[in-house]
TrEMBL record, chain A:
Gene3D superfamilies the record matches: P-loop containing nucleotide triphosphate hydrolases
SUPFAM superfamilies in the record: P-loop containing nucleoside triphosphate hydrolases (SSF52540)
Pfam families documented for this protein: SulA
Domain of life: Bacteria
Originating organism: Fluctibacter halophilus
NCBIfam families to which the protein is assigned, alphabetical: ImuA_translesion (NF033429)
Gene that encodes it: imuA
Record-given protein name: Translesion DNA synthesis-associated protein ImuA
Automatic annotation (TrEMBL), chain B:
Protein name: DNA polymerase Y family protein
SUPFAM superfamilies to which the protein is assigned, alphabetical: DNA/RNA polymerases
Keywords: DNA damage
Chain ranges of the UmuC domain: 25-149
Tagged with keyword Lipid biosynthesis: no
Signal peptide (from-to): none
Amino acid sequence: MNMTLEEMKQKQLVWQARQQATVRPAKGSGFSGLDRLLDGGLPERGMIDLHTPLGIGELRLLLPTLQLRHHDERLLIFIAPPHALCATFWQSADIALDRVLIIQPNSTAERLWAAEQCLRSGCCHSVLCWYQGVTVAQSKRLQLAAEQGDALYIQLQSPNARTHSLPVPLALSLSPDEQGLAITLRKQRGGVANRHIRVNMASRWPDLMRIRKNTNNVIAFPQSRTG
Amino acid sequence: MHGLWLYLHFPKLQMDTLYHQQDLQRPVVIVDAAVNAVVQYNTQAYQAGIRKGMGLGHASALCQSLQVIPYSPDITHKTLLDVAQWLYLVTGDICPFQPDGLLLRIHTMLSLYGGLEGYWHALNSHLQSLRLHYHYATGPTPQAARLLARYGWDQRHQDADVHQRALATVPLSNTDLERKTIHSLARVGVKRLGDLMALPLNELAQRYDHTLVTYLGRIKGSFQQPVSFYQPSERFERYLELLYDIEDINALLVPVAQLLGQLSHFLKLRDQLSEEITLVLHHRDAEPQTVIVRSAVGEYRLTAWQTLCRLKLETLTLEAPVYGLTLKGGHAYIRQPDKQDLFSGQQGALSCLQLVSQLQARLGEDAVFQILPGDDPRPEYATVQHAPLRPMQLKAPVSDHMALLRPSLLLTPPKPLTHKVTLLHGPERIATGWWDNQAVIRDYFVGCNGRGEWLWLFRTPQQQWFIHGLFS
């Protein structure tokens, strides 16, 4: 009798009350297009596999989520960012820098170790890690650690990284777009995959737009501009 | 309060640490090849008539099925330190006396255990688990305790007179004095230590050499005996010599379990977890084989390590018979309690500082840091690295500072621009830094290239272009 119950659990036919925590409602991502695509925004905890070229606005896309999450008194962690972080940017984005930690391990293997420690510790709300080619087993471990520590783990990889489909709750691909970013939803747990959407970043980043609506060649004096 | 010392003498240290099988019925002797004499033997050998100090020829003539093992000072030395480490759990000051004794300073421990009897009970029951043969004795001085223990007194007292009477009966042949001195003393009728101690010291000093006076002075306590106390190592490392060469993996698991039990005890007492252990298999005719067993989560329990070791060893082929095992504990850290929340399940409960120290321990001090905005207007100096989670003085962002468009990632050093970009903003002129010979004169622009990357660029007065940041 017990055996069959175990089998049913393995096939995920039985819903248990303790699974409830994993499907908590997500908060908005700050971009209406992305919210529509994801039915509400980025998940509260777990792993996000993000395929993106460097420098197209991937951190700016995550910024509203990070800002919101940074309100709880836990740490925001960057592991092995490809370049130095600019304090001015993060401070002007209202991220309290005394709770931001940057980890720069010497070897790539230690990046995932550090990520796991941070996630498991329960004192980080989000961990961003730049790492190429994470394996299925590694992603399962990270997902578990993120759930245990109630943290969001965002894994940034360049799009040409040849990785098979990972067992993650959410996998996104980003590419540049005239209005901001084009997002492909590669995988979402309990959602429909392979959907595309364009996110308009004009309202948040009016200065970083290729085409501006009111084309005028008078550039506003930097001090007087707001936003 | 006068001092009280306890000396433990282990006459069969190497014999006792041989891995014992329950049905062992064969006589075994340990022979010191340098002097060709039996130094240690087991019960079966004793029953066959073998005594200490016999030559190998004599011993093998008495018993034909004798197994002979060479005496190894290395093993004895290692074992003595292992015993010291084990005893350190119950007593504080331990001084190893090579090759086969441990001196304990016990008068400092008596109030903790409620007197000598309580102390001895704790020490003895702790020592029993090692299954070693030993003699012991207390003494008012280190040398007196050592002498009585080696003589096989096997008593404990706090009373100085009892010690004096016991010392007086020790024959001089049992002391550490030179054979020549003992002989010449015997010729004047001094055969026991009591006779010698009755003589005035300055008389002896005139007739005999300096070592005798020093030795007597140390027994009486008029001269200080230099002792250096044992400090336990922070890493677990034990060696186990096997009595037989083992070729079968399953047979090997039994002695491995014995070592793992000691590791488990070591970790449990320190409330530590280890993620990795190293097992070295010493082969008879080949290079030692190293097996590293890892656990995904830190672990201290014997059963967990046993399972992992079995799994690891089952995949292994032994290159040659194994005669010894070394078990080393890897990096260990303090066990963290888990927080169990009714709604969100099990959660980690490390403090931020604990996390930082864990990360720094493995990755190095400099690998973990924080950033804060500096005062310098030059972009490369505007971000200052800061040691993690130390109090930092964060200035409230200046309002016009807010308006500056800055990239999230900065290239250090700036990279020359080699491809075509479309400029969308600029210039923002930064001409400053005249005070430290690192002056910059730059016009900054925001641009976008064909690959959709948003770049922060600058132009020098020489019309050279550089990429300085990414609006990631």
